[in-house]
Amino acid sequence: MFTFRFIFQLLERSNADYLCNEAGGTAGGAGDGGGAGAGAGGSLLLPTHTHHNLQLDKISVRSISSEDISNVGSGRCCSAAARNPAIKTGRRLQLMQMIILPFIPILALIVQTSLTLQEILEYRADVADIETQVTIATDLGKVVTRLQLERSEVAFYIFTNGSKQRANLTQRFANTDHALNNMTTWSEISVPTAPDEDEDDREVMLNRNEFQSRLNEFRERVRLEPEDSSITEVMNWYTSINRGLLHHLNEQIKETDNSGVWRYLVGFKNLLKSIECQNIATSFGIRYYGRGPLTAENFVSYVRYEFMAREMINSTLNYAPILKAMYTNITSSKKYHRVKLMSNMVLKNKPNISDERSAVEYNEFMHNYTDDLRILQKALRRLIKEYVDKTLVEADRKEAIGIAILVVVLLVSPIIIILVKNAAATIQLYAMNLSQKAKELKREKRKSDSLLFQMLPPSVAMQLKQTQQVPAELYEAVTIYFSDIVGFTEIAAECTPLEVVTFLNSIYRVFDERIECYDVYKVETIGDSYMVASGLPVKNGNKHITEIATMALDLLDASSVFRIPRAGDEFVQIRCGVHTGPVVAGIVGTKMPRYCLFGDTVNTASRMESTGEAQKIHITEEMHEALQQVGGYKTEHRGLIDVKGKGLMSTYWLTCKDGPVRAREEISWCADMQPVFLDHLKLHPPTNYKLPKRK
Known about the structure:
Elements: H1 2-23, H2 51-59, H3 66-75, H4 88-159, H5 169-181, E1 189-192, E2 203-206, H6 208-224, H7 231-255, H8 262-291, H9 296-319, H10 324-331, H11 334-348, H12 356-455, H13 458-467, E3 473-485, H14 488-494, H15 497-515, E4 521-526, E5 529-534, H16 543-559, E6 574-588, E7 594-598, H17 600-610, E8 616-620, H18 621-630, E9 633-643, E10 647-657, H19 676-683
Parallel strand pairs: 6-8
Antiparallel strand pairs: 1-2, 3-5, 3-6, 4-5, 6-7, 8-10, 9-10
Helix pairs in contact: 1-4, 1-12, 4-5, 4-7, 4-8, 4-12, 7-8, 8-9, 8-12, 11-12, 15-16
């Protein structure tokens, strides 16, 4: 009980600390706070620490590394804190887990030991019951033995018409009564009411007191009127009593048939039956020697009981082989040979001269033989007692060992839990330090992966990381998009560099956010030029045509919400050019690797942008035909124009899409974005720098 109370108090204390931490709203998180510098591969993303810009960073589009994906998945799990040793709640939960982990086998050991102890106690109770039943069986055996001896004396007394007694009948009766009084239990016994009645009609069930009364009446009648009593009546009366007692003994042995002493008890019962049958056969033998040949019925009875006596003694020796040596000594004596000779004479049942002396001699030999069998009976009784005593000692020893093991487990369990708690605290300390280092390493790796994935397509970047080389590849069908800001040179001349940076950053961040909705790849931004491709590095069939067309309409609509700096209410206008065809793509350079596109398709798309008009999407005839095959887009023929390096080309305007285009309200929040460092410069301007005045 002490162990369970200690463990439950420890767990409740840990749960209380955990609930307090949860109620306090403790939250921890680390922001990367990093962005990718604009260059050949990405738009200008600058670090921010204000609440507004932090939200923008969360919403802004960036490439996602494999670590980010795993973190997103684990962040949704309610047990994420349990795996974070850097958080107090996580340490508490881990401590509880590490305490519960050894507690489970300890609890299992306690339960197993308790169950084993229960089995031992049940075994001890069973052994005690067996001891009681063996005692009952032994007492029954003593009563049967006393009744057998009494029957022999009474039969001899009647045979001599009361003239001779081999022993004092009064003492013999007293010995039988003493054995009856020592019996711990009593069952109903069948007693004949008359010697001539049928077996079913002549049995009356009596209790112990009634049986004792009937027995005394029978004894008194035999002693007072021996000439009126017959040996058959005496034999039937005592045989019925012994049959009832042996039946009760048989029931007692059945109740103990699951124990090792069962074989000895069965042998004990069979030995009693053997003596019983031998005594009955002896009565017929006395009649043969004393009164002449037996009748056919009596002869059959003699043979049956003689045969049953031998079978029972053989069965006893099979169940208790240890008695074979003693029985061999009995059968090798001269007295036994004399018994065999006289028994064989009875088995022949030849006419003879009645001789009381021969009858007495036969009776004496058989009485001595049964006495020898009773010596075997005593030896078997002693074996049974030794076995039961040994079993009781073994049960007591097992009980003591089981109790000792349970006590040791209950005493050692709290010590083990305390040691585990201390070890868990040490492990958590090292784990916290290791987690911090791993977190820093993971943060730096995420930064490098994010920068790499912004410079290169994710699939190409992963291939570059794994194989260290990416061969150039020809793509048969790719759509290229170019756009630039109309009048950007004049805008840059009129604004300060910081205003230009803010202006471009606002536009390109919106563009970057919008193109994430499409299956496209942003190739580069150079100044105000914005280049996007679809159909590489992962081929998408003919989908690249519709992706670029829809994206171009979307970006054209999104750009119109931005105002030109220092131009009042004048809005930004862009030119767009699109062409589709084959290109070659590959990694160029090792110091600052770039994913570059080569081919006439790139040049043609650039010419479409440079020869286009403000707020229009200029497309080639190939692009027009591809859109007509796909369907769902409206174009307008521009006519023939002279394109540098190409000559006259028939081109078109992409005007609209039959399906819906995202509303302007979805991206209007990006119109006034500016990097946070501008706010810092406004609050702390350099001493040699003055912000220009706006017109």
